[in-house]
Design brief:
Blueprint: E1 10-14, H1 27-39, E2 44-47, H2 59-73, E3 78-81, H3 87-100, E4 104-107, H4 116-130, E5 136-140, H5 142-145, H6 151-160, E6 164-169, H7 175-186, E7 193-196, H8 203-209, E8 213-216, H9 221-232, H10 236-253, H11 259-269, H12 287-307
Parallel strand pairs: 1-2, 1-8, 2-3, 3-4, 4-5, 5-6, 6-7, 7-8
Length: about 300
C-alpha cells in the first residue's frame, strides 16, 4: 500500500464504525462497509475519525479496527485517525498503524490550543514525535475542535513541517482558504494535497477552487465520487445537477449532533451495516426523523432516475 503525498487526490471516505445494539463492534459489518465504500468508487478510506466515533474506542479496539480495515482494503490506501490528548498515545497508535500498512495518519488539534503560537508549536511537536517518514493529514475542523487555524499559521505549518502532506479542509466558510493556499503555491509555497469534508456539502465549489477531492462521509458515497470525477473532467453543470438531487439529504445529514445517526440509518437501510446503532453516549433517530429521511431518499431516487 502506497503512502499519501502532496499530490494525493480523489475520494477518501470517512468510515463509520458499526456497532450492535449492545454497543459492541460489529466486525462483520466493518468488513461489509469497507467493501461497500470501495464498491462505490472510493479511492481510499479514513478510519477512526470523528464520525467513526474514535473517542469512544479503547486503544486496543482502535488497533484491531486499523488491522482489520487495512487488511480488507488490500493495496488501497487507508488513513488512520490518531488524534489523542497526549502525544504518547498518538505516537503508539501511529507507529502501529504504519507498521500494519496505513497510508498516513490524521491529526486534529486539541481544543486546548488558543493562540497561533500554540497551534504551530503543537504540529511541530507532532511531526517531531512521529519522525519525518510518516505522512500526516492536518484536520482543520474548527466547528468541532473549536481551534481556528488562520491562513497565516496554516502557511507557516505547511512551510515548516514537510511531513504534513495533506489538509483535511473543513473550515466553514472556507473556500477562500483553499484559494489562498493555491495562490501561495503559485508564488513558491510547498504544495499540499487538499481533501475536503463537511459531508461533501461544498464539494463542487471546493474543487473549483483547487481542492483535490473529498475526505468525508455521506450515506451515498458514490455521490462524492461522481462529483469529484465530473469536476475533474470539467463537467461543471452535470456535477451540479447531480449534486442537486442529493442536496435535501445532504442538508438533513448536516444537522449538528444528528448527522451520524442519519448516516448510519441510511447505511443500514442500504445493507452496508447491520444496525444503525451508535455507541453510548449517542442515540439513533426517532421514528419521526427516520420517516423524514426515508421520504427524502424516495424523492432522491426518483430524481436520479430522471437525470439518468
Amino acid at each position: 500500500m502506497g503512502l499519501i503525498d502532496e499530490n494525493t487526490s480523489g475520494v477518501f471516505v470517512i468510515s463509520v464504525t458499526p456497532f450492535d445494539e449492545q454497543g459492541a463492534i460489529d466486525w462483520q459489518s466493518l468488513d461489509r462497509v469497507t467493501d461497500f465504500y470501495f464498491e462505490a468508487g472510493a479511492d481510499g478510506l479514513t478510519i477512526l475519525g470523528m464520525m467513526g466515533e474514535a473517542p469512544k474506542m479503547t486503544q486496543s479496539e482502535a488497533l484491531e479496527i486499523s488491522r482489520r480495515v487495512i487488511a480488507r482494503a488490500g493495496n488501497r490506501p487507508v488513513v488512520v485517525g490518531v488524534s489523542a490528548p497526549g502525544l504518547a498515545a498518538l505516537r503508539e497508535l501511529s507507529m502501529a498503524a504504519m507498521d500494519m500498512g496505513a497510508a498516513g495518519v490524521m491529526v486534529a488539534p486539541p481544543g486546548s490550543l488558543q493562540t497561533d503560537t500554540q497551534i504551530h508549536g503543537y504540529y511541530g511537536q507532532v511531526v517531531k514525535t512521529l519522525g519525518p517518514d510518516i505522512p500526516v493529514v492536518l484536520q482543520d475542523f474548527p466547528l468541532a475542535t473549536k481551534v481556528v487555524i488562520s491562513d497565516e499559521v496554516l502557511a507557516r505549518i505547511i512551510n515548516d513541517f514537510p511531513s504534513i502532506k495533506m489538509l483535511k479542509h473543513e473550515d466553514w466558510p472556507g473556500l477562500q482558504k483553499i484559494t489562498k493556499i493555491r495562490q501561495a503555491e503559485a508564488a513558491g509555497q510547498r504544495r499540499i494535497s487538499i481533501l475536503c469534508g463537511n459531508g461533501g456539502g461544498f464539494l463542487a465549489e471546493e474543487m473549483a477552487r483547487g481542492a483535490d477531492g473529498a475526505m468525508t462521509g455521506f450515506g451515498y458515497p458514490e455521490m462524492m465520487v461522481q462529483i469529484a470525477r465530473l469536476m475533474t473532467a470539467g463537467e461543471k453543470d452535470r456535477a451540479h445537477d447531480l449534486f442537486d438531487a442529493y442536496l435535501p439529504l445532504i442538508r438533513y445529514e448536516s444537522q449538528p449532533g444528528l448527522g451520524l445517526a442519519v448516516r448510519k440509518h441510511v447505511l443500514a437501510r442500504r445493507g452496508a451495516i447491520a444496525s444503525p446503532a451508535l455507541r453510548a453516549p449517542g442515540s439513533g433517530l426517532t421514528a419521526a426523523a427516520a420517516a423524514e429521511v426515508d421520504y427524502l431518499i424516495s424523492r432522491q431516487e426518483r430524481r436520479l432516475k430522471e437525470l439518468g
